């Protein structure tokens, strides 16, 4: 197994806006089991769609519930690429449109991965790779804590042998318990292709907001991750429609 570890606990920029987007999407599904003040009558559909969490989510994301919109054929729903993780002890019917650590790491022909996280069980992580990759995939792990500081960012860079890559930003530690029966949120970028010509590598003025923020974040680690900042210049991030 080819893995390098970088212990890092310094404070760097947190992907706060992406976190807001994740919670906005989750808030659109308030539970109908909650009771009103009399603790007896459940919320109606109308009350749910007009609840403060749902209305706040609508303002932040531009996503409006069908109860508010009606059935206008001209309305387009935003695809945030944010999904929830599957719950092991729930039936398949309840794990609709979810992702797992296996489905994330099993996609495509991986060439290299970078894992940034707080708590990492490396043996467990590598066991979730396809068997032919588990002992040979070049892997960089950034993790750690020091006194009252902690490296809390949870993200992945996944590079593939067809010269594409994906960026994954999520809420789970890289340990079994976080991916088994806890609800976590995962943003997965579209498959990012290299620009058609090396001459098209991004200058700062030409970067998308996503690429600029991702590059600035990795620069905060110093020389240890500078290689990836250079790699980002070769990829087209224009399809990433979220903020980091």
Automatic annotation (TrEMBL):
Keywords: DNA damage, DNA repair, Exonuclease, Hydrolase, Nuclease, Nucleus
Subcellular compartments: Nucleus
Gene3D superfamilies xrefs: Endonuclease Chain A
The keyword Cell inner membrane is annotated on this UniProt entry: no
GO molecular function list: 3'-tyrosyl-DNA phosphodiesterase activity; double-stranded DNA binding; exonuclease activity; single-stranded DNA binding
GO CC field: nucleus
Transmembrane segments: none
Annotated segments matching region Disordered: 31-57
Database matches in InterPro entries: Tdp1
Protein family per UniProt: Belongs to the tyrosyl-DNA phosphodiesterase family.
PANTHER family per the UniProt record, alphabetical: TYROSYL-DNA PHOSPHODIESTERASE 1
Name used for this protein in its record: Tyrosyl-DNA phosphodiesterase-domain-containing protein
Protein source organism: Jimgerdemannia flammicorona
